Every structure is written in structure tokens, then in C-alpha cells.
Amino acid sequence: MVFLALTPAGLADVLRKRGEMADAVWCGADAISEADYVALGSMNVSRFNYSLQGQTDDVLAGAIDTIEEHHPGEVVWVERCM
Predict the structure, then answer these.
(1) Percent over 70 (pLDDT), the chain
(2) Which of 9, 53, 67, 74 is deepest in the core (most CB within 10 A)?
(3) 14 within 8 A of 5, measured Cβ to Cβ
(4) 74: which residues sit within 8 A by CB, 6+ positions away?
């Protein structure tokens, strides 16, 4: 299972709740700073170099397509922002 976090809170939540599972996590540039991303080390987190929060459906669909290219056949869970 792959998670796409859109907000800093969503990213923190998924990192906390997944525990030691090997699931991949992806996020936008607005969910974590470059410095904090680098500090994560080998936690299997990938960061897009553009923001995702508040973007159009087309931008999010493109991000999901990219994730599916890297994780074919995996379920992708996307954070819902209200």
C-alpha cells in the first residue's frame, strides 16, 4: 500500500501510524521542507518537487500516475483535505 500525504499533518500522521511497515509514502513539497525530507533518511518517503495541497484534480491525477509508475499494482491511499 502506498500513501500520498497532502499536508504536513497528514504526513506526520501516516509516518506515525505506519510504524515499521515498509509501505511507501509520497508527499508534495508543501508537506515537508527539503531539509526535513533529507533528515528522514531511509524511511521510504518520496517528495514531489511541487506543492499538492489545494491543486487541481489534474495535478493530483498526475501525481498519482507518477506513484503508480513506481509502484505498479499497489493501492494508493490519498489524504483527503477538507
Answers:
(1) 94
(2) 67
(3) yes
(4) 1, 2, 24, 68
- Residue 42 pLDDT greater than 80, yes or no: no
SS in 3 state form for the chain? CEEEECCHHHHHHHHHHCCCCCCEEEECCCCCCHHHHHHHCCCCEEECCCCCCCCCHHHHHHHHHHHHHHCCCCCEEECCCC
Q: How far apart are CA 51 and CA 63, in angstroms?
A: 10
- Summarised one tens digit per residue, pLDDT across range 1-29 is 899 999 999 999 999 887 656 589 999 99
C-alpha cell at 21: 511497515
Which residue has better confidence, 21 or 56? 56
CA distances from 69 to 2, 16, 76, 81 (A): 12, 26, 12, 24
